[in-house]
């Protein structure tokens, strides 16, 4: 009984609910290191009424396993040749598919393999579930989100309000790492993280946090570096056995729940996410992560970044050219294809 109570308490902390309709969600890449724990967490989300699990291998087995969890949602697994069936009637599609990082690899090293996977999955979504909201986890997010956008544009179904790059892991890390320094509850230590989802493109706005604004000097530099490159800690610790799968699954489930709450009409659901954005379009950067209000159509409002410190100005100046290169790399991949 204690274990059951602890599990339910943990789920309550991760998920918030609203008295509204439930939603059919698909996970593309459900058999992988992120996909399996993500599927389990989504099975625990009371706003998910039906869970559709797809992968080139293993999804029916994951579905059979997860389906035994004692929550109300129904779970179905689909093999490689049944992607259209997996996407039928789906309102939200989460894409963690792709290869994981290994020691010494950057997110860009993953590009050639994951770019093709994401392009093909986006094409399938455009064909089978064109009005679905698409949540991209597959790295490098700075490039894969523009690839998805281009694939949807080619099919004539791109709606920028319905495409998201999940950068929630950067937020989760920022809150956890900052809380460890100031000895606070991470859940009560919000940090806005803007820019992109790799290395120097990750810009934590510590000056906007009541806990973070007092962090200075070497402590500040080390904290920012850890937020930007925290994934390297996991890759190194797993020693060739993978990357940040469990924390990424947690972050992916957390963002999915926030989106579902917005889609269900809850007001004031605001979180950073990588979307088509006007904030830096004048500099040729048309995708950017900032605080976004989620609503009935997906992206309801894109918030400006607000006042930032001189240190954050420097971080942003380093972010923008790198982010622009990442976005252009994704677009260039799709253009000749």
TrEMBL record:
Keyword Oxidoreductase: yes
Protein name (database record): Malate dehydrogenase
GO molecular function, one term: L-malate dehydrogenase (NAD+) activity
Active site: 197 (proton acceptor)
Residue ranges that the Swiss-Prot or TrEMBL entry lists as coiled coil: none
GO biological process per UniProt: malate metabolic process; tricarboxylic acid cycle
Annotated EC: 1.1.1.37
UniProt: substrate binding residues: 101, 107, 139, 173
Keyword GTP-binding: no
Family: Belongs to the LDH/MDH superfamily. MDH type 1 family.
Domain Lactate/malate dehydrogenase N-terminal: 23-165
InterPro entries the record matches: L-lactate/malate_DH, Lactate/malate_DH_C, Lactate/malate_DH_N, Lactate_DH/Glyco_Ohase_4_C, Malate_DH_AS, Malate_DH_type1, NAD(P)-bd_dom_sf
Domain of life the protein comes from: Eukaryota
């Amino acid at each position: 009984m204690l274990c059951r109570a602890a599990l339910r308490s943990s789920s309550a902390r991760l998920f918030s609910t609203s008295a509204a309709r439930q939603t059919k969600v698909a996970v593309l890449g459900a058999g992988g290191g992120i996909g399996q724990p993500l599927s389990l967490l989504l099975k625990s989300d009371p706003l998910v009424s039906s869970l559709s699990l797809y992968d080139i291998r293993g999804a029916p087995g994951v579905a059979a396993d997860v389906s035994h969890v004692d929550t109300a949602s129904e779970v179905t697994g689909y093999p490689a040749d049944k992607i259209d069936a997996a996407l039928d009637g789906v309102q939200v599609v989460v894409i963690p598919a792709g290869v994981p990082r290994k020691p010494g690899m950057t997110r860009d090293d993953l590009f050639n393999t994951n770019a093709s996977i994401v392009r093909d999955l986006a094409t399938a979504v455009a064909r089978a579930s064109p009005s679905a909201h698409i949540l991209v986890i597959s790295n490098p997010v700075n490039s894969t989100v523009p690839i998805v956008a281009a694939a949807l544009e080619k099919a004539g179904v791109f709606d920028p309000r319905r495409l998201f790059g999940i950068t929630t892991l950067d937020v989760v890390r920022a809150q956890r790492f900052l809380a460890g320094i100031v000895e606070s509850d991470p859940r009560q230590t919000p940090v806005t993280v803007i820019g992109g989802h790799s290395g120097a493109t990750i810009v934590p706005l510590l000056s906007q946090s009541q806990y973070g604004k007092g962090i200075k000097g070497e402590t500040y530099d080390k904290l920012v570096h850890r937020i930007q490159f925290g994934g390297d800690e996991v890759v190194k610790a797993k020693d060739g056995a993978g990357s940040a799968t469990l924390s990424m699954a947690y972050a992916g489930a957390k963002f999915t729940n926030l989106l579902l709450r917005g889609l269900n009409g809850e007001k004031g659901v605001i979180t950073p996410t990588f979307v088509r954005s006007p904030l830096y379009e004048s500099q040729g950067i048309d995708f950017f992560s900032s605080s976004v209000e989620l609503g009935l159509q997906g992206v309801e409002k894109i918030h400006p970044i607000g006042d930032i410190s001189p240190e954050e100005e420097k971080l942003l100046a380093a972010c923008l050219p790198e982010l622009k290169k990442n976005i252009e790399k994704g677009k260039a991949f799709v253009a000749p294809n």
